[in-house]
Amino acid sequence: MSFTTISVIGLGYIGLPTAAAFASRQKQVIGVDINQHAVDTINRGEIHIVEPALGNVVKMAVEGGFLRATTTPVEADAYLIAVPTPFKGDHDPDMAYVEAAAKSIAPVLKKGALVILESTSPVGATEQMAGWLAGMRPDLTFPQQAGEQADVNIAYCPERVLPGQVMVELIKNDRVIGGMTPVCSARASALYKIFLEGECVVTNSRTAEMCKLTENSFRDVNIAFANELSLICAEQGINVWELIRLANRHPRVNILQPGPGVGGHCIAVDPWFIVAQNPQQARLIRTAREVNDGKPHWVVDQVKAAVADCLAATDKRASEVKIACFGLAFKPNIDDLRESPAMGIAQSIARWHSGETLV
C-alpha cells in the first residue's frame, strides 16, 4: 500500500518539521494538534516555534496545498505520533499524551494503515500503544494478534536531531526502525525513505526504544563526568578548563566541557526512563542524573559567593548589585526552555537577590 496521505499527531519541535519534510516531497500531510493557536498559525503558512529553515518549508507546503493542520484526526494511510513524554514527580514515565494520541486516531484507523510512535518512550511502549489501539478497534487485527498478517502495522522510530539543525539532520541522519514484525519495519522504512537520505537501520521495537534511551543516557553520563570534574577542581584550586585541555591530549581521552547542568527534553529526561524500569541495575545512570541535576545549585552558590565578595570589596549594598544571566535556552538559536538549567538558575537568583537580576 502506498502512502498518499500522512498524518502527524503532535506539531511541536519534532512533529512539525517531520510533517513539513513529508509535505516538501508533495505528499498530502495532515498535522494534528490540540493547540488551536498552533493549528491556526500553521494553516496561515507560519510557525509557532523557532527552528531555522522550517518557516520557509512550512510556508511553501501550505501554499502548495500539501500541508494542513487540524485539531481532530482524520483517515490517513500512515500516522506518526510525536507527542511529549515527560516524567512524573517520582521520575516514572508519563505516557498520558501517547495514550491520548493513540486513542484519538483509533476511530479513524483503516485496514492497511501504518502507525509509528516517534515519542521517546520506555521499553515496551510500542506494544502498550498497540494494546490501546486493539482495545478500541476489535474489528481490526494488530501485530501482537496476527503477526505479519495484521491489518494495521506498528513500529517505533525515534528521532535523533539537534535543535537548531532539525531540517538538516531530519533528512541526513540515519534512522533506527523498530517494527513489531519484519513487515512493520519494512513499511516504516518505506515511509521514511520518502524524504530520508540517511540509512534506515532495522531492528525490533523494544531495541529501538532502548536505543534512543541509551544514546541520551550515554551523553548524560559523559556530561556528568565533566561536571563532576568541575566540582572537584573547584575544591582543589585547579582550572578545570586547563585540566580537560591537557587530559584530552591523550589520544584515547575526549572529556566533554562542563556546564551549568543539562537541559532539553531528551538528555535531561530519557535516562530516568531506564532508571524507572531498572532501579537496581541503572546505578551509574541514576548517579549521572543526580550529578547533572545538582550542578545548577552549585552555580547559584558560586553566584552568592561572588556577590558576597563584591560587597566585601566595595561600599555597595546588596540591592545595588546587578546580576546578569546570559542565555536561557539549552541550545543556541532555539526557543525551547524545557528542562533548561539556566532558567532554574535565573529564577533562583531572582528569588534571593535583593538587587536587579537581568536575563
UniProtKB/TrEMBL annotation:
PANTHER family: UDP-N-ACETYL-D-MANNOSAMINE DEHYDROGENASE. The keyword Oxidoreductase applies. InterPro entries: 6-PGluconate_DH-like_C_sf, NAD(P)-bd_dom_sf, UDP-Glc/GDP-Man, UDP-Glc/GDP-Man_DH_C_sf, UDP-Glc/GDP-Man_DH_dimer, UDP-Glc/GDP-Man_DH_N, UDP_ManNAc/GlcNAc_DH. Its EC number is 1.1.1.336. One of its GO terms (biological process) is polysaccharide biosynthetic process. GO terms for molecular function: NAD binding; oxidoreductase activity, acting on the CH-CH group of donors, NAD or NADP as acceptor; UDP-N-acetyl-D-mannosamine dehydrogenase activity. It holds the Pfam family UDPG_MGDP_dh_N. Residues 5-186 form the UDP-glucose/GDP-mannose dehydrogenase N-terminal domain. Residues 206-293 form the UDP-glucose/GDP-mannose dehydrogenase dimerisation domain. It comes from Salmonella enterica subsp. enterica serovar Bareilly. Keywords: NAD, Oxidoreductase. Transmembrane segments: none annotated. This is UDP-N-acetyl-D-mannosamine dehydrogenase. SUPFAM superfamilies: 6-phosphogluconate dehydrogenase C-terminal domain-like, NAD(P)-binding Rossmann-fold domains, UDP-glucose/GDP-mannose dehydrogenase C-terminal domain. It is an enzyme of class 1 (oxidoreductase).
